[in-house]
Structure formats: structure tokens, C-alpha cells
Amino acid sequence: MVNHKPRLELRMRSYPTRASAERSALMEIEFSINAPGAKGEPSMAEMVWSTGDLQRALANLPPIVPPRVRREFQRLLQPWPQGRYVDAYRRSGGILNLFTPPWDERQDEVWSKLLTAWKTKTLGDETSRQSALAQLEQQWNNTPHPFFAGLTPAQVMVGGGPQEAKLAGEFLTHVERTLAKRAFEGEGDALIKTLLLLRGWQVDPQRNGQTPMRIILAERGELLVRRTHSLAAARS
Amino acid sequence: MKPKRKSRELSVPAGSGAYRQGVRQADEVIAQNDAEIRPDNWQQLVLDWFAPHEPDRSALAQYISTYRDQIGVAWAREVLRLQVFFEAQDYERIVEHYDRAFRSYPRCALIELWVAGYILRTRGDFWRVRQMYWNAAAELPSFAKPHYELGFVNYLLGDFPGALEQFDQAVVLVAADDAELGSRIFYNRGLVRMALQGDQEAARADVEEALRRRPDYAQAKEALRAMKGKARWVPW
Q1: Is the ipTM of this complex over 0.90?
Q2: Which chain B residue lies closest to A189 (C-alpha atoms)?
Q3: What is the C-alpha to C-alpha distance for residues B142 and A12, in angstroms, rounded to an integer?
Q4: Which of A101, A190, A201 sits opposite B126 (nearest CB)?
Q5: How far is CA A177 from CA A96, A173, A183, A220, in A?
Q6: Distance between CA B19 and CA B8 in Å, rounded?
């Protein structure tokens, strides 16, 4: 739930590419959706999962939020499909995917392989074929995807939580400090250097001995469990 | 042996006219090296200039033999110009020349293999580059470099299992006397083993192997020192 005292924060950040700067805005919205209220009230996402009332959740956004951003909130809070989570291609994927150049179904060799195998498989009737396809879609949804930096599409869909938001802020500050005065051969060179920092950082144990990657995966897993519980409670 | 060529720093400004100026300068370098491209010598010139050593030479000779009817003196001139840009390390010109001049010729896996890294560093076009390396891996099955590069791209994407798989293949294929590539393959495989499995022993063995192949490998020395100090060794 959004804090009832609207607060305007301005931050300057540098990004290696325009695409990553744009995705960072989306990532922040995803963090906001999963952020609990100041007194532990449910997050906007939880509110929608448990009540299905999208408008009530959106009503908590301060009036200053521009319509374009409001529409992004609305898109992200839509119910997930029964089948494949294709909207995962249009989510940020959080800090682990912030700098990955844009990609979509055309590059998705994992889904392409699954689909090719399904097409060539001899299955009895149309019902069996559709049932097999539905299984494949669930398999894709819940299997770590190489192009999502090891997150499953479901973990991408759910977005990042407060711990990831904090880690992302720390990493972005670290990148700025480290690369601020460096010269680059081009946009690609800046991207490579940023990604090298990211991949090193994500497996570097924090003070609690856990790596950022492990913390992020655990938190997203926890958010998925809460979503399942909220949806189940709403149905009962 | 690669012919000793008079080379010079190409100093061309950015912009569309700059490309033509760069090409003129490249032609001057080619002329200064007495490389007159004729119907009776274009194949030899291309092999001597672009691929003086094995296994590149055989791969390029194979390409020429396959596509002799579709390439010729004009194509050879473009290859020599490309080589001049390589020697000048003119990143922008390499990529621009490749995109402009080679579009109308059959795709050459060897040229793609050498140009792809520049596309990555200038444009950051991961998906295009990744496909170029896959093509090279398929068409040059005895080459270690495409697998090394794919491992690197997969690592940047955060696909650590995919990176390890490619580095493993590169280890098998790399020539014992290719100290430069061999050392980089082992160093990077060590990095991925550490990131993926936290396997410090295997990582250390790989870094030591990298240093055995290239004793002056500064990054490997630094990594080995860091490994002796604490678990983290990726210098970020």
C-alpha cells in the first residue's frame, strides 16, 4: 500500500543505455507494487490478489502520479493468464536483468525448442495435444530461464520486493562510483563493463553471508507463495 | 607469414561522410603496401592479409572455394579494407564497413567471428552477436573461439550454466600452443565455476592453468592473490 503522505524524490542516475534507463523506471514501479505500507499494510499487489479490486489499489496512488505511470501500474496489476506468462517479456526482471538488451519471443530459444518438440510429438486427439501444450506452458513459466539471468518467468512476473529494491539501489550507486570517470569505446563497452560489475556483485556474499542473487531469488519465491495464498484465500 | 605492412593511424571524424573518408584512407594504406588486387591474385592476397595463420587460413580458403563464383576482386578489396580497419583498431569503421560492404555477399563465419566482438563493444547488440557466434560455432566446429565468446556473452546475460557449458567446449577445442586464447578460456571458466558452484578448488585450478599458459596474465595473478585472501575474487 502506498504511504498516505506523498513524497517526491528526485534522483540522478547514470545508465549505460537508454533501454536500461527506461527499464529501471519499470523496475521501480514493480518494487512499489510489492512494497508494504509503512505500518505493515498489504502491498498493492497483495490487495489486488486478495480482493481482485484493481481500482481500489490504484486509488492509493498519490494524485501527482502521471497518467502514463498510472497505466503502467494498471498493466502490472492485471490478473496473470492461465497459460504462458508472455507478459514476462515486458517486465523488468529486476536488477539482475536491468542491463540485458531488450528481447522477446523471437529470441526465446527455450520456448522455441519446447514448441518444436510439441509440434513434432505424435499425440492422439486435439484434447491431448492442448493438454500437452498447457503442460509445456507451465514448464516454461516455472523453469529458470537463461535469458532472465536464471529467474523463472513467474519470478519475473511477480517483480522484486523491498530487499531487492535496497540491493538495487546499492548496486546502482556502486556502478556510478566505479564507472563514473571511465572512458568507453562505445555504448556496448559501457554495457559490458556494467554487466561485468553486476555479475561479480550478484554472487559476492553480503555481510550476512548470502549473495544478492540468493536473496533476490528467495524474496521473489516468497512473493509467489504469498500470491498463491492470497488468491486461494480470495477464492474460498 | 603475414606481410609486413605500412600501417598508419586512421583519423576520421564521426559521421556518414567519415565512412567514405575512412575507406579512402584504407585504400591508400593498401596501395602503400603494393597490394594491387587483380583477378589472378585476389584469393592469395585475401588469405595473406586476413588469415595468414591456421586454422583461419583453411577456413577462409574453404569459404573462397565454396563461393568463388559469387565473390571476387571487389569482395577481396572489401576484405583488405576491413583488415586495415582491424589493424588501426578503428572500432566504428570495422562495424560500419562490415555492415555496408558485406551485406551483398554470402555470410562468412570466419569474418563474422572476428567482427562480432566489435559489434558487441560498439553497439552492445547482444542478440545479433550471439547469433553470429552460434553460426561460427556451427560452421567452424574445430574452433574454440566461438565457444569462448558464447561463454562470455552467456555470462554477461547472467546465464552461468550456459556460460560454463560453452567454456567447457572451448577448453576441449583450444590448441595447446594458443596461449592467449587458452589462458582467457581457463581464467573465465574459473570465474564461472566460482559464480555458479562456489567451487573454489576448481576455480583455482583453472586460474593456475591460465597462468601456466600465460605467466604474465595480470588479471589471473590478481585473482589468485584474492583467492588466497578470501572467498571473493572477482575484481569489481
Answers
A1: yes
A2: B121
A3: 49
A4: A101
A5: 19, 6, 14, 28
A6: 17
The pLDDT value given to residue B235: 39
CA distances from B170 to A59, B3, B13, B174, B175 (A): 56, 30, 38, 6, 10
* In the predicted structure, residue B56 carries a pLDDT above the cut 80: yes
Which chain B residues are within 8 Å of A189, Cβ to Cβ? 121-122, 124
pLDDT digits (tens, 9 = 90+) for A87-127: 999 999 999 999 999 999 999 999 999 999 998 887 778 88
Query: Is CATH 1.25.40.10 the classification given to domain B144-236?
Result: yes
Average pLDDT over residues B48-77: 96
Cβ-contact A168, A216 below 8 angstroms = no
Q: What is the 3-state secondary structure (H, E, C) of A86-142?
A: HHHHHCCCCHHHCCCCCCCHHHCHHHHHHHHHHHHCCCCCHHHHHHHHHHHHHHHHC
**Closest chain A residue by Cα to residue B91:** A185
Domain ranges of chain B: 14-106, 144-236
Between B64 and A185, residue with greater pLDDT:
B64
- Our CA-based measurement puts residue A58 at a distance from the nearest CA of chain B, in whole angstroms, of 34
- pLDDT, residue A11, reads 75
